[in-house]
TrEMBL record:
Keywords: Magnesium, Metal-binding, Transferase. Its cofactor is Mg(2+). The keyword Transferase applies. Coiled coil: none annotated. Gene3D superfamilies: 4'-phosphopantetheinyl transferase domain. Its EC number is 2.7.8.-. Residues 39-118 form the 4'-phosphopantetheinyl transferase N-terminal domain. It is an enzyme of class 2 (transferase). It comes from uncultured Chloroflexia bacterium. The keyword Plastid does not apply. This is 4'-phosphopantetheinyl transferase. One of its GO terms (biological process) is lysine biosynthetic process via aminoadipic acid.
Length: 249
């Protein structure tokens, strides 16, 4: 059902990010303790406080790893040293960097599922990314009926076997990526817009009841960061291209 894996390459020493390009980073979060501790040194007191609230040690370590990895990635785009970066959020909770004097524009969005972390970075394009580990869900029917638009639900119900299993997560990640890219997050009803999900269809926005013009404004890319995972990128810019990088611990 899904397209072949992109070529996730080690990044070059000197990164160049053009205005019409989005960089997608993939990273594994289950790292040696010493490496996680190094990454945690760049985290803020607030991030350490959040980590302490996790019940399970594995979840705490993964949280610190992904925050540290995010900071190291953003530092490669002129966002300042990892430990000096400061974050804020928009009205609807979308994370953003507090700009530094003479700092080039850096837009980013992140997602994680189990031990996999994705980060999308752009200069001027607004992006949203979402990743999910594909697994059987006993309540998939109820979730789809509640959150999918009627056309999506009908399309998903028409699938069978592996296509139906993967189709649920294809639809879900496209929808999540879209509401992240628009900046509305979960304030936006998920059934108020429709995305494609059938195997033969290209990834795209089919309808948006709130803003019909977004059909021509936003583009989608399917991502295959690792075996067993599906992911989607939504970007405000139909002609944007992507480059995929593998973060090296």
């Amino acid at each position: 059902m899904l397209s072949p894996h992109q070529l996730w390459r080690p990044p070059p020493r000197q990164l160049t990010l053009e205005d019409t390009v989005v960089h997608i980073w993939s990273a594994v979060l289950d790292l040696p303790q010493a490496r996680t501790s190094e990454l945690a040194e760049a985290c803020s007191p607030e991030e350490h406080a959040r980590a302490r609230r996790f019940r399970f040690e594995q979840h705490k370590q993964r949280f610190l790893a992904r925050r540290g990895i995010l900071r190291t990635i953003l530092s490669r785009y002129g966002a300042g040293a990892p430990q000096h970066q400061r974050f804020t959020s928009t009205t609807y909770g979308r994370p953003a960097l507090e700009p530094l004097p003479d700092q080039p524009a850096v837009e980013f969005n992140t997602s994680h599922s189990q031990a996999l972390f994705l980060c999308a970075v752009a200069r001027t394009l607004t992006v949203g990314v979402d990743v999910e580990f594909v697994r059987a869900m006993r309540d998939a029917e109820q979730v789809a009926a509640r959150f999918f638009a009627p056309g999506e639900y009908a399309a998903w119900r028409s699938l069978s076997g592996q296509d139906r299993l993967e189709g649920f997560f294809v639809c879900w990640t496209r929808k999540e990526a879209y509401i992240k890219a628009t900046g509305e997050g979960l304030t936006r009803p998920l059934d108020s817009f429709e995305v494609s999900l059938r195997p033969e269809e290209r990834p795209r926005l089919l309808h948006d009841a709130r803003d019909p013009q977004n059909v021509s404004r936003f583009g989608f890319h399917d991502l295959r960061p690792a075996a067993g995972y599906v992911a989607s990128l939504a970007v405000q810019g139909r002609n944007a291209s992507i480059e995929c990088w593998q973060w090296d611990a």
